[in-house]
From TrEMBL, chain A:
Protein name stated in the entry: DDB1- and CUL4-associated factor 13
Ribonucleoprotein listed as a keyword: yes
Superkingdom of source: Eukaryota
Gene3D superfamilies: YVTN repeat-like/Quinoprotein amine dehydrogenase (2.130.10.10)
WD repeats: 62-104, 105-138, 196-238, 282-323, 325-366
Principal location class: nucleus
Location of this chain's protein in the cell: Nucleus, Nucleolus
Keywords tagged on the record: Nucleus, Repeat, Ribonucleoprotein, WD repeat
Residues covered by region (Disordered): 417-449
Family: Belongs to the WD repeat DCAF13/WDSOF1 family.
Cross-referenced SUPFAM superfamilies: WD40 repeat-like
GO cellular component: nucleolus; small-subunit processome
PANTHER family for this protein: DDB1- AND CUL4-ASSOCIATED FACTOR 13, U3 SMALL NUCLEOLAR RNA U3 SNORNA ASSOCIATED PROTEIN
The organism's taxonomic lineage, starting at the top: Eukaryota, Viridiplantae, Streptophyta, Embryophyta, Tracheophyta
TrEMBL record, chain B:
Keyword terms: Nucleus, Repeat, rRNA processing, WD repeat
Gene Ontology cellular component annotations, sorted alphabetically: nucleolus; small-subunit processome
One of the GO BP terms on file: maturation of SSU-rRNA from tricistronic rRNA transcript (SSU-rRNA, 5.8S rRNA, LSU-rRNA)
UniProt region (Disordered), positions on chain: 456-500
Gene3D superfamilies reported for this sequence: YVTN repeat-like/Quinoprotein amine dehydrogenase
Name of the molecule in the record: BING4 C-terminal domain-containing protein
Biased composition (Basic and acidic residues): 471-491
Pfam families for this protein: BING4CT, WD40
């Protein structure tokens, strides 16, 4: 006969010395783990609840300006530095890590309306309602710079009209200003090297394409979005919508797509090659969207609105993933995603810049590998059970300030009423005389080439 | 040739870890979803492969076995002959502890198999460490103890005593007195849900959450006094056996049993479940031991013999005991259970409870004269998982595990017959309208059935051929009527409404509500 029984010696399963790691043996047999799906579901539910518990997105406010913040710019070659310009003509460079002003750039006589930094991170371009474009030297070290303004100012160019916005080419030495027309400038020329004009209305914002350095998109007060190509002498395409577009942001990962922040509370994502229809309509804000900025990953973007909130959308999501608000934050005029996609900065009417986490419940600081694996596991189970009612309810819930909640309700009521009215009119008119128009199309009036 | 064998071996193992068939994505129209699901299936396949490989190459301990040579039979081997062949450490697992005064004894093991709890009927409670074979604590409560179970770890246990159930800690300190349970006959602990379930003398089944103290369920079985209560470890469904021969399966949140099966003619004496959840063994006073398939609720095998107590091992061996005799049954290729080993205690010892020790080739026996343990090669799972149940757990690991298990505590609603249903879609109940052909078919079937009814031979005069023929015709008419009336009734209603509308003056007709009354 042959007999063998299970025999374990304790030495094989316990550690030899007290400072060794405990020995772990694994057996993945499903029979040992009973009801594993129910356990996973409970873990997903707990993960969703913990997400809510740890959702503390607000990191801090940066105060220093004495008037509303009108524009911001991030430094492409320096992660920590952010520039902000205010309505009283003050420009500041902030250190995000310490949340302090590093240096100031005095000089503008009126409101600063546009800020941008050259690709090498050496030159800051500002423009404002005092009809000047100023080029500033950006300090290289992060220490506090005490040199006076005359040293920092490289050049100051006076032009014919007030400016509304400025943007620098991603690769190259040109920058474009928006005002009565679109002007293309070179760093070393005191006058624009080129000017574009299409219609008589003011151009509000301008943004260069990240992939193709010669293409730029502008939005105008005639409710238009125009795309220019610097290589041709005339503008390429124009799109007229029913309401004004306040700002435009190109998707850095899919550079043919851009998203427009519209006055009618929505954002519209377009394919620049196919403007007759929006790719996606991002709804949720209850007042005009003032500014928009894409995350460097291209998967989401942040918007700031006149309704005093900041929202984060998926690039293809119809509704926002996140809403940020505080009691003291006023109308948001400018927002920026940080260069590492983990922070969001907003500038508002209450003279403060605010720093937020891009993921509300993310743990800051150094994360140990075990912690990271745990977070990844929690994320995975949450993702697996996100469709179950209880998990879904917890994950979707966001506290809203009462005015915004009420305004949202009102907007929904209005939309419903309008839809009902249209349905009735359609029912009482000749068949085919009132064709249905999709939401992605019906805000667009015409496309001109 | 060998390579082929190797891959087959892996395939069998992979199947175990795949947890069912992969999803059928053929009919899916949504391309994006289809892509996502296909990726997911690929991931599942990869992880199952990795787990199978880990099982093949990384398992430390080998499974036990008992193989006869030549004309030897496995059930002829006595414990003494087995003891001569095995190593010294395993030989220590064979013991008889004679405590003649306070028996009969019941036994219970922790989920890791490290500790054993024994409870003598006359009030002796003891916890033993099975590695050192020393008692951790033993004390007497000077009261009848009917049953005792460990709670989630060896620190706490519950004992069903004469009047109430008590919870003690390892040091023997009484922590709680559970008066609501009454005079409990049998206790079971649901370790995923932290529920203590009990059945008492008045056949009330109770579920109490031991973390919060909340009484989750209190149900009257109304089937008479019973002390047969067993937990199905696969889905945490509690099963009770009754004197009428019925076996009921209960979940903590419903007052009626999920399943009620008539298993035996006569009282049920013992129930046990296979760890994979598909098999149930029941024993009755009708001298039968039955193996049931829990997916179809049908008997797979009926064995002759009495059993006071039954126990399935982790590897699927079934032990049955009656009097002082224990037999262990084995199945090969999941067909019938055959005799594997037998063991007879000293004459006059009445076995009260048997239980396989987890992760060891050991069967514990509680009997009227103390408790014993014998070696059953091939009964236990050789490889434990440190994160599930670790026999070599340190204090720190035990504390961490307690926290982890409490965080994963399942709600009582998650006890269900098929635990893989969590998070699945409920299948749509579509009430399809029968087609005309189907209705015709049914009608024909009903008429045929009415025709084939045999007429009983009645008393004189009543079975006249004319009367028989008339009766048959009546039956056929009746069968037809069911189908006719249904259709005509509907038509009539509709017609009535239309005529009502038409009777009104033309001006008023548009204002008649279209839905009717």
């Amino acid at each position: 006969m042959r007999v063998k029984v299970i025999s374990r010696s304790a030495d094989d399963f316990t550690r030899e010395r007290s400072n060794d790691l405990q020995r772990v043996s694994r057996n993945y047999d499903p029979n040992l783990r009973t009801q594993e799906k129910a356990v996973e579901y409970v873990r997903a539910l707990n993960a969703a609840k913990l997400d809510k518990v740890f959702a503390r997105p607000f990191i801090g406010a940066m105060d220093g300006h004495i008037d509303a913040i009108s524009c911001m710019a991030k430094n492409p070659s320096h992660l920590k530095g952010v520039f902000s310009g205010s309505m009283d003509g003050d420009i500041r460079l902030w250190d995000i890590a310490s949340r302090k002003t590093i240096c100031q750039y005095p000089g503008h006589q009126g409101a600063v309306r546009g800020l941008t930094v050259s690709t090498d991170g050496g030159v800051l371009v500002s423009c404002g309602t005092d009809c000047t474009v100023r080029l500033w030297r950006v300090p290289l070290s992060s220490g506090i710079d005490s040199s006076d303004s005359s040293e920092k100012l490289i050049a100051s160019y006076v032009w014919k009209n007030a400016f509304w916005g400025v943007d620098h080419q991603w690769e190259g030495s040109l920058f474009a200003t928006a005002g009565a027309q679109v002007d293309i400038w070179d760093h070393n020329r005191s006058q624009p090297v080129n000017s574009f004009e299409w219609g008589n209305d003011t151009v509000i914002s301008v943004r260069f394409n990240p992939g193709e350095p010669n293409i730029l998109a502008t939005s105008g007060s005639d409710r238009s979005i125009t795309i220019y190509d610097l290589r041709t002498s005339s503008p390429a395409r124009k799109l007229i919508m029913r309401t004004k577009t306040n700002s435009i942001a190109w998707n850095p990962m899919e550079p043919m797509n851009f998203t427009a922040a519209n006055e009618n509370c929505n954002c519209y994502s377009f394919d620049a090659r196919k403007l007759e229809e929006a790719k996606c309509v991002h709804k949720d804000h209850v007042s005009a969207v003032m500014d928009i900025d894409y995350s460097p990953t291209g998967r989401e973007f942040v918007t700031g609105s006149y309704d005093r909130t900041v929202r984060i959308f998926q690039y293809n999501g119809g509704h926002s993933r996140e809403i940020y608000h505080t009691k003291r934050m006023q109308r948001v005029f400018c927002v920026k995603f940080s260069g590492d996609a983990s922070y969001v900065i907003s500038g508002s009417d209450d003279t403060n810049l605010r720093l937020w986490k891009a993921k509300a419940s993310e743990q800051l600081g150094v994360i140990l590998p075990r912690e990271r694996r745990k977070h990844e596991y929690m994320e995975a189970v949450k993702n697996r059970y996100k469709h179950l009612p209880e998990v879904k309810r917890i994950l979707r819930h966001r506290h809203l300030p009462k005015p915004i909640y009420k305004a949202g309700l009102l907007r929904r009521t209005m939309a419903d009423a309008e839809k009902r009215k249209e349905d009735r009119r359609r029912a009482h008119s000749a068949p085919g005389s009132m064709p249905r128009k999709s939401v992605r199309k019906n805000r667009i009036i015409q496309e001109i080439e | 040739m060998e390579i082929q064998d190797f891959s087959d071996d892996i395939d069998v193992k992979v199947k175990k870890y795949q947890r069912g068939e992969s999803a059928d994505l053929e009919g899916l129209k949504d391309k994006k979803l289809k892509g996502q699901l296909a990726n997911r299936e690929e991931l599942y396949k990869k992880s199952a492969n990795a787990a199978a490989k880990a099982e093949k190459w990384l398992m430390q301990t080998e499974s036990g076995l008992l193989e006869p040579e030549g004309i030897e039979k496995t059930w002829r081997f006595s414990q003494q002959s087995i003891a001569q062949e095995v190593d010294v450490a395993s030989r220590k697992n064979q013991f008889d502890i004679i405590l003649p005064d306070l028996g009969p004894y019941t036994i219970d093991y922790t989920s890791s198999g490290r500790y054993m709890l024994t409870a003598g009927r006359k009030g002796h409670l003891a916890i033993m460490d099975m590695h050192t074979l020393k008692p951790v604590k033993d004390f007497q409560v000077r009261e009848t103890v009917r049953d005792a179970v460990f709670l989630h770890n060896e620190l706490f246990f519950a004992a069903a005593q004469k009047k109430y159930t008590y919870i003690y800690n390892r040091a023997g300190t009484e922590l709680h007195c559970l008066k609501e349970h009454g005079a409990v006959l049998k206790l079971q602990f649901l370790k995923n849900h932290f529920l203590l379930s009990s059945i008492n003398k008045s056949s009330h089944l109770r579920f109490q959450d031991i973390t919060t103290g909340q009484m989750v369920g209190n149900y009257r079985t109304a089937l008479g006094r019973s002390d047969v209560l067993q937990l199905n470890p696969y889905n945490s469904v509690i099963t009770s056996g009754h004197s009428g021969g019925t076996v009921c399966m209960w979940k903590p949140t419903t007052s009626t049993p999920l399943i009620k099966i008539l298993c035996h003619h006569g009282p049920v004496t013992a129930i046990s479940f296979h760890p994979n959840g598909h098999l149930m063994a029941t024993a009755g006073m009708d001298k039968k031991i039955k193996i049931w398939d829990l997916r179809t609720y049908k008997t797979l095998q009926t064995l002759p013999g009495n059993a006071k107590t039954l126990s399935f091992s982790q590897k699927g061996l079934l032990a049955a005991s009656t009097g002082s005799f224990t037999q262990i049954l084995q199945t090969s290729d999941s067909s019938n259970y055959n005799r594997y080993m037998i063991h007879t205690m000293a004459k006059g010892y009445q076995i009260n409870r048997i239980q396989f020790r987890p992760y060891e080739d050991v069967l514990g026996i509680g009997h009227s004269m103390g408790f014993s343990s014998i070696l059953v090669p091939g009964s236990g799972e050789p490889n434990f998982d440190s994160w599930v149940a670790n026999p070599f757990e340190t204090v720190k690991e035990r504390r961490e595990k307690e926290v982890r298990v409490l965080l994963d505590k399942l709600p009582p609603e998650s006890v269900m017959l098929d635990p893989t249903k969590v998070g699945n879609m409920r299948e749509a109940k579509r009430k399809e309208k029968k087609t005309k052909a189907e209705v015709e078919e049914e009608k024909a079937a009903a008429v045929a059935a009415a025709k084939s009814v045999a007429v009983k031979k009645k008393t004189k005069g009543r079975s006249k051929p004319s009367k028989v023929a008339r009766k048959k015709q009546e039956g056929i008419e009746n069968a037809k009527r069911g189908f006719v009336e249904e259709n005509e009734g509907r038509d009539k209603k509709k017609q009535k409404r239309i005529t009502e509308v038409n009777e009104l003056p033309i001006a008023l007709q548009p204002f008649v509500s279209k839905k009717g009354k």
